[in-house]
Amino acid sequence: MKGMDDESADRKEWTELARNTRYLKEKGLIIYVIPSYRFADKRIARFLATHFYNVGMMRFSDEDYEDFRQCIFIGNKKSGKHKEFNQKLFDFLVNMESDEFVFSKVTPIDKFVTAGKKWSVPPGIEELRTFYTKLAHKSDFSEGIRNSKGFQAFMNRSKPRQLEIGGDPILPLNVGQLALLLASGAVNGEIGEGENYHLVQGLELVKKIPSEEKKTHDNGSVTTITKIKTKREVSVKVICPTGRILKLV
């Protein structure tokens, strides 16, 4: 019983045994049903012989065992940190790899029930601890959240970015400088305020320009070499305060 998507090589019989025992109450009762030969796994056998007492082992009835080959382990979990190892139980479990041993030494479940064997299950917590709580109105927290540094930082990050330009450039911007502005996002969004408020959108236009070069050889043959150059242009659309739309290429 191993999951197809499991990253670990551990089989599910061992994984589930260790996991369920961790959450089982001390003196709690475990009913562990796996294929009979898996009880012979020394890791499983040693774990059961160390952590459980008042144990019982039974197999499916003669009618069902041939189809399923399952056995049932029942026992109470030991308490305390230091647990005595049950060597007799360990030796019994490691022999269950043999079907002959299982048929001769492990009692069928129907006969086990008629024997009247019983296990006790410890009671749970009878008294629940009392806890107190109260409902608070959201207005009690809204002012503190609004004035908190984290919320203010969030508000500042959420605002549209505005580019502040101090005066006109000394020289006209060339294509390379405009490309840097486009890459930094400076030629997008809101620019200026009041009468100088504009909405700007910048785009980079990439064109492929082919060119041919012919070379004549001494024997009279001609070789044509085709070269493709990449040309980048900048297109900027501007909406003025008057509503006029300008396109600069």
TrEMBL record:
Pfam families: DUF6094. Residues 13-81 form the DUF6094 domain. This is DUF6094 domain-containing protein.
